[in-house]
Amino acid sequence: MNRMLVGLLVLLVGLSALSTLMYVTQKVSDSWPPHSHTKTSSAAAAAPSEVEDSTGLLAFKLMPLIQQKRPDANRKTVIITGHGRSGSTLTGSIFRAPNWVFNYEPLKLHDWPAGLSKRFDPETNTQCRPDPLQVYHKMRCPVADMMYLLDLAHCRTTDMPLQAVTLEVDDVPGDDVIRRLNATAPLRGTRDPACARRDLAGVAVKTIRINGHMDQLFALSEKLGLRVDLVIHLMRDPRAVLASRYSVGWGMPENRSYDATLAWARDMCGRTMADSRAGGGRVNYMALRYEDLAAAAVARTQAIYERLERDVPPTVLERMRKNDAQSQGGDSAKGAGGGGKGKPHQYGVGVRNFIAQLTKWRQELSQVEQNAVAEGCREVLRTFYSDIDELVKKKSSSDGGGAGDSKDTNSNTQHQVQSKSRRRWRQ
Predict the structure, then answer these.
(1) Sign of CA dihedral 67, 178, 140, 379
(2) Is 247 exposed, middle or buried (0-12, 13-18, 19+ CB in 10 A)?
(3) Strand pairing partners for 80?
(4) Are strands 139-140 and 129-130 parallel, antiparallel or unpaired?
(5) Cα Rg, the chain, nearest whole Å
(6) Element (H, E) at 49
(7) Chain mean position to CA 165
(8) pTM of the model
(9) What is the pLDDT of residues 158-187, one digit of tens each?
(10) Where are the beta strands (DSSP E) in 158-243?
(11) Minimal CA–CA distance to 166: which of 150, 181, 185?
(12) 283 in the Ramachandran plot: left (φ > 0), alpha (ψ -120 to 50) or beta?
């Protein structure tokens, strides 16, 4: 008889615990992240019940256990990476939409504790590197940076980025840092209130600060179970990248000699190829040439969203249609771009004739510089840009080498780039 009573009691306790867990799961799905109680005119809101408070606290503590039940389990995560001046801002604009959370260069403003920055010695540290473009500190530590980006892409906050940077500043190799990270580190909440929206299609992060470390990005993602649905690896003809960097005054060789330009090219293109090899064969990796996006913005945007199994937001589709119209010689967006008097801003993504940029580097780089980049980036040019010289020659001969392009010339160039890119996308 006593055994029956004990068994019945255990059953009742189990059912009660299951009921509580189901209730908490529903609460998290409906109102995550946990709200902070603020003063309102409503008496009920001003004095929430102890049951509501304790449930919210329990939901927060149980978050890792029931994360798969939350609505964001179906949200897409996208990371856009590429070198500066390769068209990453234009690519990022594909995800500037009401139903997406888009994070633009979050590492630029990110800061570490002051003590860590002081411990960093650029002369001896082999893991982190100086970065003069940073706002609050002047170092880049790749594993910590990528951990921060993964947290951001999953709308969460943990101590793992700080764990990683502490090790990297002490010159612990990146692979060892990844092994030491605690995959069960407690979550401290969500980072962006917009992540609580039930209709959110996904979260996209755009960065130019992790080049050459894509293998570690995938390793982190897999170890910690933080899926990345699509990594868009953006690239651009390195000669055009160099010309563009001279126009903005950063990220250039030490001088314009052959040797300095060659060293710059080998470093940048070496990182490009390392990332290409790390992503090759992965279903969540996509190599995207800026030239293909510029020539056919709508087609490339639609292909990206097809990979994500999502519809293109109407505002994004309209924006890309305007870019295509301008590249084909239309004047539907004349004067747009934020530069005033029809001149695009150097960091803007206003509609402009992107096809015209294909030949611009020929006028802005000396033959010595062109030869140095061709040598230092030989593998990148052979692998991804074997067709560019042909396109440039045809375009230059058709417009007489001038800056102006006729509508027929632009359409012809666009058709050639589209034909090449269609074959690449099928592979």
Answers:
(1) negative
(2) exposed
(3) 206, 232
(4) antiparallel
(5) 25
(6) none
(7) 20
(8) 0.73
(9) 999 999 999 999 999 999 999 998 777 777
(10) 202-207, 230-235
(11) 181
(12) alpha
